[in-house]
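call fold(seq) -> tokens
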Amino acid sequence: MKSIWFFEDVNLFSMLCPHKFKEYKACHEFNHYKKQDYIYFEQDRSTKIYLIEKGKVKIGYYNQDGEEVVKSILTKGELFGEKAILGEVQRNEFAQSIDKDTTICQIGVETMYDLMRKNTTFSFKVYKFIGFRFKKLERRLQLLLFKDSKTRLLEFLQELCEEFGYDCPKTGHKIIKHPYTQKDMASLIGTSRPNLNVLLNELKEESVIDFHGKEIILFKKSA
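ret:
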């Protein structure tokens, strides 16, 4: 069993020194999931949080019409199921692997509380992370409810730029190397994959972006 803190360069994992986790190693296990496997369902008991070692996980729920609503798509080093820390008893969302090989480390809530009690800095960062996650989700739901699909895409591209973008030193344009497929992106902005492709090509023709595979160039606006 290897410690989850080999993720020490990403997200929450950098907040707790690796040696402090060793005493908990026996409490944890890595679980492997194939594409479309569920990690948990709506209505399941909320007793654990989860950390992604490898792969991608979709978080979502089904509305009253039985349609799937995607809340987020998470990748390596990210945490989910975090509402269990806040006292959630029953899941109100599902978590599903969308990669052919997803590896998850699960941590019991009581163990997480113990870690947080022993390290106040870590505890603060966990709650800050949860607040950031809720704020991001609220923003995404507002986009889905009140903005047209092209506006949703533009704002999503700005989100990607904040998370994965960097400046090209020669041109000043933003280069975004992200982990999402077009299907992922379409799910996150609440549109179809064909419509997303149309929108991306429109933005390309308008010289707003260029794209190839999982790289997007966000052109610098001229003065």
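The helical segments are 109-118, 120-146, 149-164, 182-189, 193-205.
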